[in-house]
Amino acid sequence: MKTWSRFWVFLLIYPLLQVSFAQTNYAQSGATPTQIPGRNAILVGTDWYPEQWPESRWEDDLRLMEAAHIKVVRLAEFAWSSMEPSEGHYDFAWLERAIALAARHHIDSVLGTPTGGPPAWLTQKHPETLRIDENGHRAVHGNRAHASVNSPVYREYCRKIAEAMAIRFGHNPNVVGWQIDNEYGYAFTSFDDFTRKQFQDWLQAKYKTLDNLNSRWTTTYWSQTYDRWDQIPIPIGENNPGLMLEWRRFVTDTWNDYQKNQINVIRAHAEPRQFITGNFMGFFDGFDHYMMSEPLTFASWDDYVGTGHVDPNYNGLAHDLTRGFKRSNFWVIETQPGAVNWASVNNFLNKGEVRAMAWQAIAHGADDVSYWQWRSALNGQEEYHGTLVGPDGTPVPLYEEVSQIAREFSSVQEAFRGTTVVSEVALLHSYDSRWAIGFQKHTEKYDDVGVLKAYYTSLRKLTDSVDVVSPFAPLDRYRLVVAPDLNVLPKDLADHLLAYARNGGFLVLGPRSGMKDEFNGLLPQRQPGYLVEALGGRVEQYYALEKDFPVSGVWGSGQVSVWAEQLKTFASDAEVAMTYGSANGWLDDQPAAISRPYGKGRITYVGAVLDDKLMSAAGEWMIRKSGATPSSISVPEGVEVSRRSGAGREVFVLINFTRGPQHVTLPKPMKALLEQKQETAVDLPGYGVEVLVP
Ligand code: GLA
User: Separation of 396 CA from ligand 1 center, angstroms?
Assistant: First the structure.
């Protein structure tokens, strides 16, 4: 009987599953899943916690939000104890009322599943659901991300609450989407026996035999040889590089299974129009975000500056990274309303800076910018965090700036409908490589994200946009592909890159590339491994540098720092682009960058970390030689130009990240949408913004 009823349920939900599956393929269909049909194309939102306030207060909050043109709220991602006060007794009535009241103020709702904060009744009944840290300490209730996501008991509770929410709200017309968990618990796992056994089983499923595993990891080294699967540890501290890399992949799979457990029940009950997203954290590398993004409708991220001020290149790069997770638009589902509470110095952003940041998000492909949070709970760990209203419930000074942003978004939103960022230049970003370099940095000064940013900074100021994508992404659309430090470069990836260059692509590899296989073992070739032959040259020796050394060549003269590789060419048509000057003896007069035509394209290898001036010149050389289209509008230092296009539209965003005025001459008259007039030049005040259409 039970089996039959399951069968009928399956028959009923099967069509829904099909639609849901189709919905996950937005990237291929060219649609913009981040833009909600019938709503403004770009939105301002906030994170609202009605459960923390008497219901009599909600109307005031929503009235203030509406007055500020806020169009969306995210709710409930920490409200488990309010939604399920005791086991199996759900109370969603308050949430339903909050959503309905928000809708009366023309505000849509996004629901977060509350699994980042299990209630006390759960952790008390099942203490085994509290995770154990690396030191063997079990988490104490009262914080967040304190559950073990490996625990089947915990997963079952997560499934049930997500399912109950989806049944109740999956057809609610005012719920536009879902967020799973919160920041995926910073990728924490539990270091308990059960997780260890899961990891061992995971390894067995992958490697099949211990002989295979022992050989891939060269476990004869330091007597690591395993003759039983249950001997393999969870790596804590330093361990075998192969084991450490697999642990990160296991953590990725763990979190992916954990989110799919919730996604599946939401998809089964929710209307396909409701999106499902997750809030990532920029360059955080606790798991592989490309894999984690696969089951999501689109990726979102939480954009916080912390101490100091926005670095447009770093922030722009993080936006582009997030856009690359699914190669589609994204949401900034949290951002800082002036200041945070968790940095070393929680300074406030300057007046105008929050607006510049909001527009940068849109310029780089976001379709929503949401402020965390609307109002601080009167007690709780984040009392000092920035908000839009104060503890008295009236607006703080920043409220006016956020209102301005939201007003501007509303007035120009149509120009962004159906548009996305279309690039001719891509940077390759790989978690395997970042992890591999991170495990064995060789010099503490090597900063993999810093190297990526150096290439990005140089290229981004010459073009309207740069994509940041997985090395396995389709590359045909790009004129220029740059892999700043692609350390793990197995054969299949090498073939993919070679095919790109052979078919006319301009491929540039940066230092430390092509050194490792997929098991984090050294390739039995010199760098760049499987690309040596096509490059017609190789790395003779790498050097961690204590000090800078001179280098000169087609990109001018300057310094290399942190890392330098001694290169060699052996093909007659391989060219030396840069040569070291007097250095450590070994590097003296040796090639630092080499390049060779390959098929219809070209492969270039840059073996050192270059100074900013050289990096700029190298970027100019790459753009020119590859034929990538230069920026549409030339802008002074500190001003960023970005372009979005699609659905027959083209829109440019100019942002002045400096505090002083800047003048930009336009190549042709354009309509300035914020100023509402035709312009041939734009004068931007400090942190000024303009949106232009041809
Ligand atoms: C993260 C969390 C939020 C909040 C903010 C504070 O992004 O997702 O719940 O704690 O940080 O900056």
Answer: 19
Are 212 and 225 spatial neighbours (Cβ–Cβ below 8 Å)? no
- Closest residue by Cα to residue 263 from 367, 115, 152, 154: 115
State if residue 372 touches ligand 1 by the CB under 6 angstroms criterion: yes
pLDDT of residue 67: 98
- Identity at 504, one-letter amino acid code: G
Average pLDDT over residues 16-22: 35
Q: How far is the CA of 334 from the centre of ligand 1 (A)?
A: 7
Count of C-beta atoms within a 10 Å radius of residue 684: 23
Beta bridge partners of 692: 652, 672
For range 188-202, the mean pLDDT: 97
Q: Is 616 strand, coil or helix?
A: helix
Distance CA 101, CA 389 (A): 19
Do residues 326 and 28 touch, judged by C-beta distance below 8 A?
no
State the Cα–Cα distance between residues 215 and 519, nearest whole angstrom.
10
Mutate to test the pocket of ligand 1, among 372, 374, 385 (most ligand atoms within 8 A of CB): 372
Helical pair 448-460 and 312-326, crossing angle rounded to 10 deg: 100
Share of the chain above pLDDT 90, in %: 95
Residue 551 CA, distance from chain mean position: 34
Q: Which residue has the tokens 């379709």?
A: 367
pLDDT tens digits, one per residue of 2-16: 333 433 333 343 333
Q: For residue 561, with 0-12 CB atoms within 10 Å meaning exposed, 13-18 middle and 19 or more buried, which class applies?
A: middle
Q: Ligand 1 center to residue 463 CA distance, Å?
A: 33
Where would I find the beta strands (DSSP E) of 113-251? 175-179
* pLDDT tens column, 28-58: 444 689 999 999 999 999 999 999 999 999 9
How distant, in Å, are the alpha carbons of 458, 486, 527, 557, 578 from that of 560? 16, 19, 19, 10, 11
Give 110's contacts (C-beta < 8 A, 6+ positions apart).
45, 72, 73, 74, 75, 175, 176, 177, 178, 179, 333
Whole-angstrom Cα Rg for the chain? 26
In the set 84, 183, 424, 640, the catalytic residue is 183
Percent of the chain at pLDDT > 70 equals: 96
- Per-residue pLDDT averaged across 560-583, rounded? 98
- What confidence score (pLDDT) does residue 588 get? 98
CB 339 within 8 A of CB 398: no
Annotated active-site residue 183? The verdict is: yes
Beta partners for residue 664, in sequence order: 682
Phi first, then psi, for residue 598 (nearest 5°) are: -145, 120
Cβ neighbours of residue 572 closer than 8 Å, sequence gap 6 or more: none
Nearest to residue 430, comparing CAs of 480, 471, 484, 490? 471
